[in-house]
Design brief:
Belongs to the polysaccharide deacetylase family. By secondary structure, this protein is an alpha/beta fold. It has one domain (about 25-300): Alpha-Beta Barrel (TIM Barrel). Helix content is about 50%, strand content about 10%. The protein has helices spanning about 1-15, 15-20, 45-60, 80-90, 110-125, 145-155, 175-185, 185-215, 230-245, 255, 265, 275-280, 295-300; strands at about 25-35, 65-70, 95, 135, 160, 220-225, 250. The strands form 2 sheets. Strands 1, 2, 3, 6 and 7 form a 5-stranded parallel β-sheet that branches. Strands 4-5 form a two-stranded parallel sheet. Helix 4 (about 80-90) links the parallel strand 2 (about 65-70) and strand 3 (about 95). Helix 3 runs parallel beside helix 9. The longest helix has 30 residues, at about 185-215. It is globular. The chain starts with a helix and ends in an 11-residue tail after the last helix. Bound molecules: zinc ion. The site of zinc ion has 5 residues, from strand 1.
């Protein structure tokens, strides 16, 4: 027995430090199903979803929640099968409101009606599986504390948990330029989009981990905000490989959000936790800066008659 313990101890000491440490967990979540951002001329919404689903399967990512805005099916009825494809692949749907309202700009009654409208669309598709996850559009939780609490209580009464975000590299910013660059046939610009996308993801992952370790003393589950856009779908195989090579393992939303750091989001009848930047400020910490590429992205593939908006 003593020998076995000694052997185990030797094995533990011999293992490299990285192998002894638990791998950080990243959870992919996709917003704005079934139609996000501009559609390049060479593809369809269904093809975008098919590419994303194949990438999830190939990388064995597991159950990726897709957050739905029901109103997208009205201007783009051809996008509706995306929701069926998602479900047929065994992937769950969550609620992102019907028309992507900003809670800071509308009444509580209108906001809740919007949530209920999407629930009527996704509940039958989920056929008894758990769709009670809500992702705030624009991540806007209400700028007035009373209004914010009213919506949280209403979400709790409906059985919802808040699908909080703990990592985002602003993936949505690449999709419009990509559609422009495909239309323009500008391969060099598309290559710039691809490299800058992966660089932003890597830089954000490192910065987010650094901040979490400074604030909490350890990694937390990283719930990554993504969008179902054309460049996202194109980049997913490379993006997922990059996260793996950085040491991440893929987890599920339910597992991740059972971590104590998400307690106030899992039960929205509780008061909200202060935002991360505020928690950092209270400890004399500052968030790690990352490169801002929005102007560079905005400038790509603009015809002379349609310059960058000022
Ligand atoms: Zn959204």
């Amino acid at each position: 027995m003593r020998g076995a313990v000694a052997l185990a101890l030797i094995a533990l000491l011999a293992a490299p430090a990285a192998a002894r440490e638990a791998k950080p967990v990243i959870v992919l979540t996709f917003d704005d199903l079934p139609a996000h951002s501009a559609l390049p001329p060479d593809t369809t919404r269904v093809e975008i979803a098919q590419k994303a689903i194949k990438a999830f399967r190939d990388a064995r990512v597991g159950k990726v929640y897709g957050f739905v805005n029901g109103n997208q099916t009205i201007p783009e009825p051809a996008s509706a099968p995306v929701l069926d494809l998602w479900r047929a692949a065994g992937l769950p749907l969550g609620n992102h409101g019907w028309s992507h309202l900003n809670l800071n700009q509308v009444s509580v009654a209108d906001y809740l009606a919007d949530i209920d409208h999407t629930e009527a669309l996704i509940a039958p598709l989920m056929k008894g599986a758990d769709f009670h996850w809500f992702r705030y559009p624009f991540l806007a939780e209400g700028d007035d504390p009373a209004k914010r609490m009213e919506v949280r209580k209403a979400l709790a009464a409906r059985g919802y948990r808040i699908a909080q975000v703990t990592m985002s590299f602003g993936d949505y910013m690449w999709n419009e330029p990509y559609a422009r660059c495909v239309a323009a046939g500008d391969k060099a610009a598309i290559a710039t989009l691809e490299t800058s996308y992966l660089r932003a993801a890597a830089e954000t992952a490192a910065a987010t981990r650094k901040d979490a370790r400074a604030l909490y003393g350890h990694d937390i589950p990283y719930v990554l905000l993504m969008h179902l856009g054309a460049l996202d779908a194109r980049m997913l195989p490379r993006l997922l490989a990059q996260y793996r090579s950085e040491g991440f393992e893929f987890g599920t939303l339910a597992e991740a959000e059972s971590d104590p750091v998400f307690a106030a989001d899992v039960n929205p009848s509780l008061p909200p936790a202060p935002p991360k930047w505020q928690q950092m400020q209270a400890k004399g910490l500052a968030p790690t800066p990352v490169e801002n590429v929005s102007k560079m992205l905005d400038s790509l593939c603009r015809p002379p008659s349609n310059p960058v908006p000022q």
